[in-house]
Write a structure and sequence with these properties.
The protein is mostly helical and about 200 residues long. It is built from nine helices and no strands. Helix 4 packs antiparallel against helix 5 (about 90-115).
Length: about 200
């Protein structure tokens, strides 16, 4: 006879029986849950529309997810360049392949934003004040890390010293292209000496 307080699988509702058979945990009062691990309360409460327009949520989510993908891209780019500097090509190539896929993801994500019509965007634009994706510090770090150096692009971040320091560090550091040239030189290929030790803040002519 089964215990009345712990019914058998046969006596339990079908849904509950399936969960029990799969060994799924249902009580997270004393352990970390999926939402806890991902800090979903913070993530999902970070969308704060300023207009009454329905479409602003799309605009916010589009740009916040883009920033998350760029965070991962920077994580991979920095690690890949560090591996290149140590002549560790296999992990560097894997990370750069991931960067390529992230770029694809970012491009395709605009298909969703394209469902917003120009009049719909015009309805929310006044609420955005002077904010623009042009001001993304992560985008600027990616741009600098890939070799497109422009000191003028430091200025939009001057009001945030902690962010300016991060962008300026990317501006002063060798780019992916620079590290690739140094790698080729170490492998015996003829690379001009002026490309191996130079002012990394300057773009190539």
């Amino acid at each position: 006879m089964s215990c009345p307080h712990h019914p058998s699988d046969a006596a339990a509702p079908r849904g509950e029986a399936i969960v029990r058979q799969e060994g799924a945990r249902l009580d997270f009062s004393r352990t970390m849950s999926y939402g806890d691990y991902l800090h979903l309360d913070a993530v999902l409460n970070a969308q704060v529309p300023l207009s009454p327009d329905h479409n602003e949520m799309l605009f916010i989510v589009q740009h916040q997810t883009s920033e998350l993908w760029m965070k991962l891209m920077l994580h991979e780019l920095r690690a890949a360049m560090a591996h290149l500097a140590r002549d560790e090509l296999a992990p560097a190539f894997k990370m750069l392949a991931r960067v390529s896929k992230i770029m694809e993801q970012l491009v395709h994500a605009w298909d969703v934003l394209a469902t917003m019509t120009p009049p719909e965007y015009s309805a929310i634009r006044p609420y955005l004040s002077n904010s623009s994706g042009f001001q993304s510090w992560q985008y600027r770090c990616i741009e600098f890390s890939l070799g497109n150096k422009n000191a003028a692009m430091l200025k939009p971040h001057a009001h945030r010293p902690e962010l300016l320091a991060k962008v300026e560090a990317a501006w002063r550091a060798p780019s992916l292209y620079d590290e690739s040239l140094r790698l080729l030189a170490r492998r015996g290929l003829p690379v001009p000496a002026g490309h191996l030790e130079r002012d990394w803040t300057q773009p190539y002519p």
